[in-house]
Write a structure and sequence with these properties.
The structure is a homodimer. The first copy, chain A, has 15 helices and 17 strands. Chain A starts with a helix and ends in a 7-residue tail after the last strand.
Chain lengths: ~425, ~425
């Protein structure tokens, strides 16, 4: 496949998608849902081929489980499409309106980004979720899924594309990229691809960030912290730590490091050690931690490591400022939580921890588009611009300024006899 | 100067700036205004040295004029600072609030970006404007101004820094970078600098974009178009074209290419030729243009050229779709205007032209932060993410998610007996 040609077609499609009406896009999403149900047998047959190959290749059982796309998954996916239909239209919303001068009105209106390249892992439902988010937000897309799901992805992309184009989406709006070389080709296309969203291993995301001029939205790592302040409720602190670390260790919003205020450490550390050991978690502590409980010694490398496994590093800190400093040094700016009964400490933590998600008395595992109520998510961003944290429809749009005049020229508003600007806020939405 | 050290200090300062209250920041801006007035003599003396050097070096008169920083400029700058004080606080604004479940509240709250590197041209007032926008939005900054204004920039940066730190800004929040090598050093500091805003020549901005992993906001070129639709009012079309091209040719929002619908070309081209020739503008036309008026022949290169001079390229197009297609191919996504009496044509143009600013019946020269009523602007962006068009305070903030719980853990909301999420919108602002 010629990726440059596909991207160029996507660019043309994106221009036309910007003018699509809500009704047409929602009807297309409904057509996609129906087509998935109509193609159920063929989709499951394709998925069975992927599952058999995965079994032969002796893939980890967790990966095999994630690969599965059966009747229940298709139903769940269609439910997701219908909730997306019910979400408000993200494009064409007026963010602000100003009269610059009589008869000259400026509107800041949401608009699609253009062409988005998404590289995602081996869950076939991710393909449906991402492509439908792009459709709803009028963005053309190039999608590359995991190689293990190749057969399932191919039939899903084909089903979505045909149903949506029949419903009025422009040709070329969606392309499935099927090779790693295709991804490498995408990295060079900064004239036609407007945004890349890579999901996957740290090394892979980092590689993409380092090898393209296209803006990248995503997260390379999820080094999340839980800080137990001196006034924390001990039961709550144990609960939140165990949930943040153990509820699902293989994901980016799981905690990797626990910071403990020195005044509460003697009471808290023996309790958390017992609770974590019950879950089979290895503890790596700094010197002060190991002075209170028996544990393996943490090295400097531990503070910068995303275990994605049943391992936790623990450090005793003299005060909240030291906790904030440690987090701002080692955190991947994803999600960090404080457990405390002290409102002022919580406020300080939430203002000064430089991460996308800052939580007070809640598990880091809540950092997720569905749990946040965003509908679906296209990814999680640790960038400092555009969109942070779980990214839903809002992160897939930008805005443009639309100015409506009646022949105004700047020369009349310049110099000694310049007419004046009014800059009066308008209470109306853009409409033509 | 060690730029890495300065950037690291700026990062520490940025963390503390995120927690600064509005009153303190506004008092600091007022202190800066007073210090500028108090240091008036020294500032003017430094500026005189720059002006003398510029005269000796035989700098273009326009550049010498822009370099000047006298009593009137200081007063204007202080007026600017006071309007900035009166603008609403950009940080800590609640963008949305949702109850995830009873006792678990999610707030999306605006926050500073962190450390911003700005490289700007030789207008000393730009230094005051940019640093004060960063202060108001709680961003630390590294600033590099034009070498011609070195003496003026030094005393201005020194005055601003001392006054603001005395008023409570953290040490290291502002650093003046004085060498080109300093800029090169900045490009590597993607761990401490969150955003680069380069202003200057195309080649320079393009060089920065191509040589850093730090996100870049700005525009490399301003190839702006005026399209005269078949139903345009001829007087308005002449006025808007002349203003867009001639009101100030050396700037990015000046028009470089004129597109003319074939049905109006025979009536319009002779009139615009006369009007442009009166202003001394060279016309380069495509074959069809040259079939109607006498003009130099345009080559393909002309469509992709930002003249920044008294030259305009003209192309006759068969319809609005061809105009939109030409613009989306050659425009720098800055500002493009349509002149038409047809509302449907205007709507089509404004939806499908993929530029930051799309104007109907108004001059491209209105694309400017002051004219848009944003207060000051830190630059103009042709990016497709984060911020587009003239960028004021809003483009200097991002958001973070603040979650307030009462001990909730994800395990309770998972599996067969999962508690339910409520996802109910909250009508309140974040407050602790």
């Amino acid at each position: 496949m010629n990726i440059e040609l596909a991207a160029s077609k996507a660019k043309n499609a994106a221009i036309r998608m910007a003018a699509l009406k809500s009704d047409l896009k929602n009807a297309a999403l409904e057509a996609v849902a129906q087509a998935l149900v109509n193609n159920e047998d063929a989709i499951i047959a394709a998925n069975t081929r992927d599952l058999e190959a995965a079994k032969k290749a002796d893939l980890a059982p967790a990966l095999q489980k994630r690969l599965k796309f059966d009747c229940a998954k298709i139903k769940e996916t269609c439910d997701g499409l219908r909730s997306l239909i019910n979400l408000p239209e993200p494009v064409g919303q007026t963010l602000s309106a100003t009269e610059l001068t009589k008869g000259l009105e400026l509107y800041k209106v949401t608009s699609p980004i253009g062409v988005i390249g998404v590289i995602f892992e081996s869950r076939p439902d991710a393909l449906v979720q991402i492509s439908s988010l792009c459709l709803k937000s009028s963005n053309a897309c190039l999608l590359k899924g995991g190689a293990e799901a190749a057969n399932t992805n191919r039939i899903l992309a084909d089903t979505i594309y045909k149903a949506s184009v029949s419903a009025g989406l422009p040709e070329g709006w969606l392309t499935l990229v099927e090779t790693r070389q295709g991804v490498m080709d995408m990295l060079k296309l900064d004239r036609s691809i407007d945004l890349l969203i890579p999901r996957g291993s740290n090394e892979f995301v980092r590689y993409i960030m380092d090898n393209t001029n296209i803006p990248v939205m995503g997260h390379a790592a999820g080094i999340c912290h839980v800080y137990i302040d001196k006034s924390a409720d001990l039961d709550m602190a144990v609960n939140i730590t165990v949930d943040s670390k153990c509820q699902y260790t293989a994901v980016c919003n799981a905690a990797e490091t626990l910071l403990v205020h020195e005044l509460i450490a003697p009471a808290f550390l023996p309790r958390i050690k017992a609770a974590l050991q019950e879950k089979g978690v290895e503890i790596r502590g700094d010197d002060r931690t190991c002075g209170i409980i028996t544990a393996n010694h943490a090295t400097d490398e531990d503070w910068a490591t995303e275990y994605l496994d049943s391992i936790i590093s623990i450090k005793v800190v003299p005060n909240i400022a030291a906790a904030i400093d440690h987090i701002n040094t080692y955190s991947s700016k994803h999600t960090d939580a404080i457990v405390t009964a002290d409102k002022a400490a919580a406020a300080q933590f939430m203002e000064m921890v430089d991460s996308a998600d800052v939580f007070w008395n809640a598990s880091t595992r809540f950092a997720d588009g569905f749990r946040f109520g965003l509908g679906a998510e296209v990814g999680i961003s640790t960038s400092k611009i555009h969109a942070r944290g779980p990214v839903g429809l809002e992160g897939l749009v930008i805005y443009k300024y639309k100015l409506i005049g009646t022949g105004q020229i700047v020369a009349d508003y310049t110099g000694p006899n310049a007419k004046k600007y009014t800059h009066a806020p308008l209470k109306k939405d853009f409409e033509l």
